[in-house]
Design brief:
Helix 2 runs parallel beside helix 3 and helix 11 crosses helix 13. With 514 residues, the protein is α/β, with parallel strands linked by helices. Strand 8, helix 4 and strand 9 form a beta-alpha-beta unit. The protein has 14 helices and 17 strands. It is globular. It is 34% helix and 20% strand. Strands 1, 2, 3, 4, 5, 14, 15, 16 and 17 form a nine-stranded mixed β-sheet that branches. It binds zinc ion. Zinc ion binds next to loops.
């Protein structure tokens, strides 16, 4: 007998060797998706009926990762800033080099750079990105005829690669407290909050319209920007908007209050750079008599829709205010180490149950699992300890210590550190940017990736230590299939439009630097 759905929209059953469910890997399980791109159920293989089967021998299947903080265009700088420009180099000298690239990109260049960046993300198993977008105008600061031209080029790039995008549109009003305006920031500026809101609304309307052109709508559900539609047959959104007041440096308090009030009214996600550099903290104390986090807390700006990007230079007193308000932190360890920013006190955040998501930020490297492991490794170097983020602390009598008389190593014990770090790369990221996906559960978006179990970087794993091997040592070469909304975008480790994207990016690099 045929299943009812077989003629029209057959369900698809993905059958990997191991499927990650409830934080563990199980054999003999299928992930069943419908034609709208949602997960219908996880089922035992012997329970399947008329589903179309896609068999993936030798693969483990995991939820797609969410990259919560990106400046896609900065990918053009990779490898070009790794030298000393004066007596000492820092975030601030790097920023001048970044600005000089930012001022030269045409709209088409922004598209080509973004497409390569998102392609590299897809090849790493990333299925959603939060793009912190501040390039708004022509290089001399004149708005384009369409004031959202560049934002839309970035959204188009994500759509062409096939990953989801939260376009976090940046509000940027000044160089800093009592700082002369920097002409290299002319492309970012919207000094009047009303102009910012008008452009944000224009972008939101355009993104919603573009979504409905590509997504099959369920007439019974609404699909508003910023609020994801969860109708039964409605496909999860490929793109949506959020707000991003750039930093306490670039957005004065009155402007910031307006942005937050708008975000509250429209239930939009709010991302903001917070305490990345000590100089930003001291300037904030000078202007407001408070640290950035104290200022955000006392102004009522922290909320469960708020993500503080970096949040490195914070006092122990500041951390509970994240916990009390439900605000999150986005750590970007590969960029933070590249720029010499400092170390995110992730152990303190975890102690207070503040969720941490991850971003590849400047794209000095794009490998979200590297960011995950660095979150832990930076603390090991600082604290001279191992497993700093582990919450399980066995007592001496329970401890399967290596010093026991048998000398045997503990085995069969899953790593809670790896599980916590993988949650940062998936669930917490999805929550931070309001993305579908992040876990493999019925009703969720069918966003996932597979790894080859025979890849040398993870081979020999048992189901207990597989996640730990993936988090601490997976090579990108092991990522084989990447699927967004049930649609494969990477097969056998290759993206469908990889050659063309790389070729166009090579041409852009030639144009920019030779
Ligand atoms: Zn950033």
């Amino acid at each position: 007998m045929m299943a009812d759905n077989e003629n029209k929209d057959p369900l698809i059953a993905w059958l990997p060797e191991l499927l990650m469910t409830g934080g563990r890997f199980a054999p003999g399980q299928a992930l069943v998706c419908d034609s709208s791109g949602r997960i219908v159920k996880l089922a035992r293989v012997d329970e399947l009926q008329g589903e179309k089967r896609i068999i993936l021998p030798g693969r483990a299947l995991l939820p797609g990762m969410v990259n919560a903080h990106s400046h896609a265009f900065q990918r053009v700088l990779r490898g070009r800033t790794e030298y000393r420009t004066g007596p000492s180099d820092s975030f601030w000298t790097w920023r001048e080099m970044m600005y000089s690239a930012a001022t030269r990109l045409t709209p088409e260049d922004v598209y080509d750079a973004s497409r390569l960046t998102f392609l590299e993300m897809a090849l790493n198993g990333i299925t959603s990105v939060g793009e912190f977008h501040y390039l708004h105008h022509a290089p001399d600061g004149t708005p384009y005829d369409d004031p959202n031209l560049l934002a839309k080029e970035v959204v188009r790039a994500a759509g062409d690669v096939g990953i989801r995008i939260a376009l976090l549109r940046v509000a940027y009003a000044r160089s800093g407290f009592q700082v002369e305006q920097n002409p290299q920031q002319a492309r970012f500026l919207e000094i009047d909050p009303d102009v910012y809101f008008k452009n944000l609304e224009g972008l939101s309307a355009d993104v919603t319209r573009a979504n409905s052109a590509t997504v099959r709508e369920d007439p019974s559900s609404r699909a508003e920007s910023g609020a994801l539609a969860h109708g039964r047959a409605t496909a999860p959104s490929p793109a949506w908007v959020g707000v991003a007041p750039h930093s306490v440096r670039a957005v004065p308090i009155e402007y910031l209050r307006e942005v937050i009030s708008y975000a509250n009214q429209h239930e939009l996600k709010v991302h903001m750079h917070v305490a990345e550099q000590p100089a930003e903290v001291s300037a904030c104390i000078e202007e407001y008599g408070r640290t950035p986090v104290a200022m955000l807390a006392t102004e009522g700006i922290l909320s469960e829709r708020f993500t503080a990007v970096h949040a490195i230079h914070v006092t122990p007193k500041a951390i509970p205010s994240f916990a009390e308000t439900g605000a999150m932190v986005c750590a970007c360890p590969t960029t933070e180490r590249n720029l010499g920013d400092g170390v995110v006190p992730a152990d303190e955040y975890f102690k207070h149950k503040v969720p941490i998501c991850l971003g590849t930020d400047s794209h000095a490297q794009i490998d979200l699992l590297e960011d995950a492991r660095e979150l832990e490794y930076h603390l090991r170097l600082q604290r001279l300890e191992r497993a700093v983020l582990s919450v399980a602390r066995p007592t001496e009598s329970e401890s399967p210590a290596v010093s026991s008389s048998s000398g045997a190593l503990p085995h069969g014990r899953p790593s809670d550190t790896a599980a916590a770090l993988f949650d940062c790369a998936t669930k917490s990221g999805a929550r931070s940017i309001g993305s579908p996906g992040g876990s493999l559960e019925p009703g969720q978006a069918a966003d996932f990736f597979t790894v080859a179990l025979d890849d040398p970087s993870i081979s020999g794993a048992s189901s207990d230590d597989l996640l730990s091997r993936i988090v601490f040592s997976l090579s990108r070469a092991a990522v084989r299939e990447v699927v967004v909304g049930g649609r494969p975008i990477v097969s056998e480790g290759r993206h469908l439009i990889q050659e063309e994207v790389v070729e166009r990016f090579n041409e852009l690099q030639q144009k920019l630097w030779s």
